[in-house]
Amino acid sequence: MLEEQHISYGILEEALHLFDTSISTCKLPITLAEGTRPQNGEDGELVYYHNRSREINRTDNWNFRDVMQIPSVEVGEKLATISPPRAGMDGMDVYGNSIPAEPGKAPICKAGKNVVFKSLEQTYYAATFGQLCVIDKEKQVQPIFEVHETLSLKEGNLDFTGSIHIHGDVPSGYRVKAKGDITIFGMVEAATIIADGSITISEGLAGIEKGLLKAGENIYIGYI
Questions:
Q1: Handedness of CA 145, 147, 151, 156 (dihedral sign)
Q2: What is the value of pTM for the model shown?
Q3: Closest Cα partner for 218 from 205, 52, 207, 201?
């Protein structure tokens, strides 16, 4: 009977015997053969080596202004590695025909600005120091971190491996530190500004004798 229907795979011998010997009493419908479902492959993924979160770890020394950490990297740092997709396993129907499995998909991510991809290692590296970010599935390292307003609790104190641009003021009590340059398009109150490079303040320092400016190179300021 099964041969007449060209069924050759997944035959359930016990069910077939029951059907042949007790056709008048067995409960119908009865499954006499079963195919094998395909097992689809697993998608690849990006394994990151850096926490891209800007949340801080609250410790005994926690300051209410420390509300953000800039995800920054050094030159040559490993950023992420591609974990390859898995192929999956084909299935088969009861006629002996292969049922192809869907292969896993490779993750979509391009090496963008200041990022190098080494194909042999399937790994992304930073070509400069700066802020690690992913924009439109493109991994980038931005050497400048920008604040587009007066510094507030939304950003908090800043400590960055690159340069910092603040398009506003730095109020009293805040700390801004950078390995590159710091440019402030506003005024600085009683705050601490430390740069390994130069500091530029377009207006001035109103520090009430408490503000601190410290630069590895030059300081440019409108007034003190």
A1: negative
A2: 0.66
A3: 201
Q: 7: which 2 tokens?
A: 């069924």
Report the distance separating Cα 194 and Cα 164, nearest Å.
11
Alpha-carbon distance 74 to 81, whole Å? 17
Lowest mean pLDDT of 87-101, 177-191, 197-211, name the range. Answer: 197-211
Q: What span, in angstroms and rounded, lies between the C-alpha atoms of 127 and 119?
A: 15
What's the CA gap between 87 and 102, in Å, rounded?
A: 8
Domain ranges of the chain: 42-90+100-141, 143-224
pLDDT tens readout for residues 127-158: 998 888 887 778 889 899 999 999 998 888 99
What CATH code is assigned to 42-90+100-141?
2.40.50.100
Q: Is the dihedral of CA 186, 188, 193, 197 positive or negative?
A: positive
Q: Which two tokens stand for residue 93?
A: 């129907």
> Please, are residues 26 and 19 in contact by the beta-carbon 8 Å criterion?
yes
Residues 6+ positions from 55 with CB-CB distance below 8 Å? 68, 69
